[in-house]
Design a protein that fits this description.
CATH class of the largest domain: Alpha Beta
Number of domains: 2
Largest sheet: 10 strands, mixed
CATH superfamily of the largest domain: VC0467-like
Order of helices and strands: HHEHEEEEEHEEEEHEHEHH
Shape: globular
Helix content: 10-25%
Number of strands: 12
CATH architecture of the largest domain: 3-Layer(aba) Sandwich
Distance between the termini: 31 Å
């Protein structure tokens, strides 16, 4: 979609140019030496939620292609009760998109602004992917594309493909696949920042599934993912705030 030639390019460039916007990276970016060790995600919630068996202990290298579930102690209003799909996680930082926030835009209006004709449901909504570079667009879908277009597509999970290319959008607008999410903006973390937030209990890590991405209503997604991990959302108690 607009201004995006490759799904990973804006994530890398904006981490340098939009550091202040990337969830406070300029304030709290910490280069951690824990990379390669095990992060005890949301460890304080073991006692608070009384659900020790359901909390995940996640290796740093496995964070890409996972879901982040915002915990009550995450006080940033941009991410309150959000579910974030992680696309990339490496030494340069982390890049993902929010799955359960919306915008007032529709696919018809967005495509019209790009001189494209939308052939799908007229009321198809555009989701809010995050606060960074809101002019950039992303597609999350489950469909095979013609040869040659695939170089702009990243497989992020079983039956889940991710792209930020206008060429990919052109391929799907006339006959959009049933399983398609359109998003604007993204979420980004500087090197070591997400690991630090995990240790502070700001996020819980959950498995990425196509059911959550395509079948669960965004309005109940946060609760759905927690309950799928056998965690009752009402038992979660905010500890020291993470901003």
């Amino acid at each position: 979609m607009a201004h995006v030639a490759n799904p990973m390019v804006p994530a890398r460039e904006a981490r340098a140019t939009d550091e202040k916007t990337c969830r406070g990276a300029a304030i709290r970016a910490q280069r951690t030496k824990r990379r390669g060790s095990i992060v005890h995600a949301s460890i304080r919630l073991v006692a608070e939620a009384s659900q020790p068996a359901t909390l995940l202990f996640v290796a740093i290298s496995s964070l890409a292609s996972s879901l982040l579930i915002a915990m009550p102690q995450l006080r940033d209003p941009n991410f309150r009760r959000t579910v974030v799909m992680l696309i990339q996680h490496d030494d340069e930082g982390t890049f993902g998109v929010v799955l359960n926030r919306g915008t007032e835009l529709s696919a018809v209006g967005l495509c019209a602004s790009l001189d494209l004709d939308w052939g799908g449901e007229s009321a198809k909504p555009i989701g809010w992917g995050g606060p960074v570079q809101p002019q950039t667009g992303w597609l999350v879908f489950d469909a095979e594309l013609p040869t040659g277009v695939g170089r702009d597509v990243k497989q992020v999970g079983q039956g889940i493909r991710f792209a930020g290319s206008l060429d990919v959008l052109r391929q799907v607008v006339e006959k959009p696949p049933t399983d398609l999410r359109l998003l604007l903006g993204y979420a980004g973390w500087g090197p070591g920042q997400l690991e630090s937030e995990l240790v502070e209990g700001a996020w819980l890590v959950a498995p990425l599934t196509r059911e959550v991405v395509f079948d669960v209503n965004p309005s109940v997604m946060w609760e759905h993912v927690l309950r799928s991990m056998k965690i009752d959302p009402s038992t979660l108690i905010a500890g020291r705030g993470v901003h």
